[in-house]
Amino acid sequence: MADLTSALELQLSEIELLGSMFPGQGELVLDHPATLADVRQYVDGQTDAAPAARLEFTVNLKVQEPQQAQFSIQCSFPHDYPETLPDISIWTASITRQRQTQLNLELSQYLQSLPRGELCVNSALEWVQDNAARFLDQASPAKQTSPVDTPSRTFARYWIYSHHIQSKFKRRDLNEWAGKLGVTGFYLPGKPGIICVEGGKERCEEYWKWVRELNWKKISLRHHEETELADGQAVDSLRKFQGFGEKVFGAHNFHGRNFHMDLGEFYQFLKEHHCEAIYAILFGIEGKSTES
After folding, report:
1. Which part of the chain is the RWD domain (predicted)?
2. 55-63 and 69-77 as β-strands: parallel, antiparallel, unpaired?
């Protein structure tokens, strides 16, 4: 496939350029070096099998002013990049969660303004270098009450539908944010992607706010349930899921670009947790179990 070969050639050239710009140990970190070898073999015509996994890497930038801080810029290339935008997110321990969310939002807006078909990671890195100081230099806001600190009188369960969930960075964030907010549930990676969170209403609202600020092709809150707690009733008494994590059901081509889950197994999972009615709301059809 000529278009795929051309796109992957450009991706390799960009990674080589970044390697020359960030030669220090730990500055440019490939997540899966074997994937790079697979892409090179395909581009060089040594194999007809298109690489299944994406090229993913992290660039660690050090900013000296107004204070020394490290910013990790995590990149994941869709196979058709640069015709489509890469997944790029920033992580740093030097600013608050709210500022980090704003930083990623502004970076996403900047990337959206760039012309399609052109390599853009170096432009993104320059943008981070130019704007990092603005976020580091802001005075720390007064401590505000967090949804985690506020006892809720309403239990909620949110069902979120995404065009897909593939980026490992998004998957990491989904897990970390659930832990920080104390919500339970799960997410279903692949195409489509499903996220379920449950807990106090305020915490679910905050989780949904954080999630929708990420760069998505399409995402929506398909359904939400709310139950007022009776006197003495605890949020935990209404949970249907323990903990929070990724659920995989008979995935086809799980390491590829558009892997799909076995939705029959997913329906069975929902049934086991007494949530099978949500299937028709999410997908518009009645669910069928794979069990005979």
Report:
1. 13-135
2. antiparallel
* Strand 69-77 relative to strand 87-91, pairing: antiparallel
Winning range, highest mean pLDDT, from 64-73, 171-180, 236-245: 236-245
Distance of CA 211 to the CA centre of its chain: 8
Dump the DSSP string for 275-290: -TTHHHHHHSS----S
Contact assessment for residue 225 and residue 183, using Cβ atoms and an 8 Å cutoff:
no
Q: Strand 28-30's sheet: what is its strand order? A: 28-30, 55-63, 69-77, 87-91
- Distance (Å, whole) CA 78 – CA 258: 10
**Domains defined along the chain, listed by start:** 2-136 (3.10.110.10), 150-283 (3.30.70.100)
- CA dist., res. 284 & res. 233, Å (int): 34
Q: What is the pTM (predicted TM-score) of this model? A: 0.65
Pairwise pLDDT comparison (167 vs 128), residue with the higher score: 128
Closest CA relative to residue 237, chosen from 155, 131, 169: 155
State mean pLDDT over 154-168.
Answer: 92
Q: E-assigned strands of the chain?
A: 28-30, 55-63, 69-77, 87-91, 154-162, 184-188, 193-200, 219-228, 244-246
Distances from the Cα of 33 to the Cα of 15, 16, 23, 38, 121, angstroms: 12, 13, 16, 9, 19
Residue at 18: amino acid letter: L
The span from the CA of 144 to the CA of 40, in Å, is: 50
Query: Which of helix, strand or coil describes residue 260?
Result: strand
Query: In 10 A of CB 187, how many CB atoms?
Result: 22
As beta bridge partners, residue 236 has none
Cross-strand partners of 154: 228
- Mean pLDDT, to the nearest integer, of 142-168? 79
Mean per-residue pLDDT over the chain, rounded: 88
